[in-house]
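[job 4471] stage=fold_predict status=RUNNING
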Amino acid sequence: MASEPYQPPYSLTPIMFRMVEEIGEALGHLRVKNGAVEPHLRRGNRIRTVQASCAIEGNTLNVEQVTALLAGKRVLGTPREIQEVRNAFVAYERMAEWSPHSLDDLLTAHGVLMAGLVDAPGSFRSGGVGIQYGEEIVHLAPPASRVPALVDELLAWLKATSEHPLIASCVFHYEFEFIHPFQDGNGRMGRLWQTLILSRWNPLFATVPVETLISEHQADYYAALNASNKAAACTPFIEFMLAMICDALRELIATEQVSEQQTEQVTRLLAVMGRTPLSAREIMAKLELKHRPSFLYSYLQPALACGLIEMTRPDAPRARNQKYRKTALGHLQHPNPLSAGEGGDKQLTDKEGADHDE
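[job 4471] inference complete, writing structure tokens
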């Protein structure tokens, strides 16, 4: 007699239905806007995703450092932190190659994500593990001997389920963390695989930085996992993750709107910058601006976020001698600076240029 197919324990709730509807509306809004995220925002979101997913596991590199590292620059960080970021970026870039239902692809992805970080990347664990948050052990995973069968059952359920992909991806994420199939990297793999599942349903999810919201609500993330463990059903975790997805989409919409509104200011900033790095004070002088907060919010920060300019010292964002220069993308966006921005203005003295750039 054939055994019944595995069915993860959870209940559908009114909160889930409302979240699914709101997520659908947000996706519809993004589809109206040409159906795709702008290229510079897409890369920025991928960097935020990588940084956040690593940060949840204790990596201390910030977004500016990750951006610099992935551009081939040297940053201050431990060899392990640098390897974690590089591996995660490659894994997210290769996501399109993998099937959410494939065991081989799951193991390959872990091999990419944990290369140089564990003894046997891409292999299931051989011993016991648990989830620890702070000083508390919040979950002891099933014995290693059961892992292959449990993962097979979960992948088979994912392939066969008629559940909405938003719900199914959350269920998979929780069940994957419950099984904890690898010695290390389970959290990063669970978040990566949920993004893969969602991106197969809607390609926009390949660039939605849900991990950033999870990082900002890390305590709530572990609380939802713990609540699901205690309830012996992943209902609380599904509700939490749907809220994170919804909020991430809202932030993406807001970011695009801000980007559109600030196009004129960013264009003006690029117009006064040539190939010589400039301090914030020097750029403000060329733009004839005197209000520093407005300059930072409306000009400098959006240009940095869009990858149009970069810091000369990304390892020390607040350095007194920090300067800024156009990136290759910035030169493409505005290849011919205004003549006034290329040496025609009065040069500032060393004293004027030595302010503390925030």
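[job 4471] summary: Residues 235-261 form the longest helix (27 residues).
[job 4471] exit 0
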